[in-house]
Design goal:
mainly alpha, 4 helices, about 10% strand
Length: about 70
């Protein structure tokens, strides 16, 4: 996931959308799911951490079936 998509995902999660980010590098997925950010952008790490804590944001390494995403 690129820089702009990371920010967009965090902002969508902030306003209540459920967002699943797909990233191939395991370290980026782990960092995101622990509330960190692999890129430096003012306020982004806070938004990611809030999204994770509120259950609106998560990162995965591969795309899951649509039904699995809808049912959590």
């Amino acid at each position: 996931m690129g820089h702009v998509r990371r920010v967009t995902a965090a902002c969508l999660a902030e306003i209540g959308h459920s967002v699943t980010r797909v990233d191939l590098p395991k370290v980026k997925v782990s960092l995101t799911n622990s509330g960190g950010s692999p890129v430096i952008e003012p306020g982004l790490e806070y938004l990611i951490r809030q999204g994770i804590q509120q259950g609106h944001l998560r990162a995965v390494r591969k795309v899951e079936r649509l039904e699995s995403l809808a049912h959590g």
